[in-house]
Amino acid sequence: MRAILIGGALALLISLLGTRVAIRQFTKLGYGQEIRDDGPTSHHTKRGTPTMGGVVIILATVIGYFAAKLLTGDVPSASGLLLLFLFVGMGLVGFLDDFIKIYKQRSLGLRSKAKMVGQTVIALVFGALAISPWLEDSRGETPASRHLSFLRDLDQFALPAIVVLVLIWLFVAGFSNAVNLTDGLDGLAAGACVMVFGAYTLVNIWQFNQFCGAAPGPKCYEVRDPLDLAVIAAAITGACFGFLWWNASPAQIFMGDTGSLALGSALAGFAILTRTELLLVVLGGIFVVETLSVMLQVGYFKATGGKRIFRMAPIHHHFEMLGWEQVTVVIRFWIITGLCVATGLGIFYAEWVAGS
């Protein structure tokens, strides 16, 4: 448990101090954000604000995790290293996207096909290793399950490996893009991520306390490395919290695709490795709503020959166009996120109580 506190505290401190350094350096190098011409006009004042702040979030998380392992003398687990691979790998895809935007001075970075290729490669490598028998522990548990799951595995029959890989790819690509879509207002994505990753810290601690490897029983959790995952969840929570100090309105730095793709993929990774894929739909409900708003807008636009459901998508821009202040939209979306997290944790705990 000490590792959780150390990892979270160090990541928070590194992010809080490191983001200030990043603002100064990125400003000096001219790494400023380009703004969509078709976005809300109020956003044009943000042009030139330093971006790629996700680099600090990633570094703070990785340093916090390994420092916690070093100080407690624990060995990193297969699940922990896999999750960091997914987190950092998607961050690199986002970094390329951000760098191209800066270098070419445009709001479009990597082409959509190139970005999808990068996301696909990272997701499939993660998935293949996560279900590989090479990474089984002494109980025969692999980091990821070959079953669909809500609060734990839903069925008794393992899915074919190719189906599992496709589902992992869909989940990782879906949530990495969902956080990317949500990251459109100062502090919105960072604040929401603090709450959802904080929830996964609690989920992993609870799973460790009821771990089948330590206390077998009818309601124990078949998760390979819950305590190590809790350390990473705490580190990401701390890193996002420290970053939020500088990213809150008016933002002095943006996380960019570097941060949003990394954080979204990490959420998917936690859901997969803790056997709570469908629970993430509840915990991360705000990200699901943001994505659905874009899908509905695009689908309706094409089906009706140019008509729109929302004034602008993602949905946070719709409320801006209705005249809401950005801070009002962000705070209310944080409240919704808090309700989603409370509901998800309530469901998680109630299932255990009902079956105990």
Unreliable sequence segments: none
Derived structural class: mainly alpha
Write down how many β-strands occur, each being a DSSP E stretch of 2 or more residues. Answer: 0
Averaged pLDDT, please? 91
Task: Please indicate the count of domains.
Answer: 1
Q: Your description of this structure?
A:
By secondary structure, the chain is mainly α. The protein has one domain. Helix content is 68%, strand content 0%. The protein has twelve helices and no strands. It has helices spanning 2-29, 54-72, 78-104, 112-130, 161-182, 188-209, 226-247, 256-273, 277-283, 285-304, 315-321, 326-355. Helix 4 (112-130) packs across helix 5 (161-182) and helix 8 (256-273) packs across helix 9 (277-283). It is globular and about 55 Å long. The chain starts with a helix and ends with a helix. The model has no long low-confidence stretch (mean pLDDT 91).
Q: Can you give keywords for this protein?
A:
356 residues; mainly alpha
